[in-house]
Amino acid sequence: MNSVEVKGSWNEQKGKLKQKFAALTDNDLMFTSGKMDEMLGKLQIKLGKTKEELRMIIAGL
Fold first, then answer.
1. Residues of the chain whose pLDDT is less than 70?
2. Single pTM value for the model
3. Which residues contact 47 (CB under 8 A, 6 or more apart)?
4. Using CA atoms, how far apart are residues 4 and 31, in angstroms rounded to an integer?
């Protein structure tokens, strides 16, 4: 998964992630081009998942 794939439908994916994980906020899911790893790091801490698990979750939305 690269940033282009995510950016295209990120608003939709962000909504689905917030439904799946109620603890997430808009700030947690703020996506800036080139900073995917930084965002995943924040999610990793908040959700207790690995970056690979998070990539799979996002790809599966």
1. 1-8
2. 0.72
3. 21, 23, 24, 54
4. 11
pLDDT of residue 4: 42
Q: How many residues does the chain have?
A: 61
CA neighbor of 57 nearest in space, from 24, 30, 21:
21
- Token pair 């801490």 in the structure block, residue: 45
Per CATH, which fold does 3-59 belong to?
Protein Yjbj; Chain: A; (1.10.1470)
1 secondary structure, DSSP code: -
Which pLDDT score is estimated for 33?
74
Amino acid sitting at position 52: E
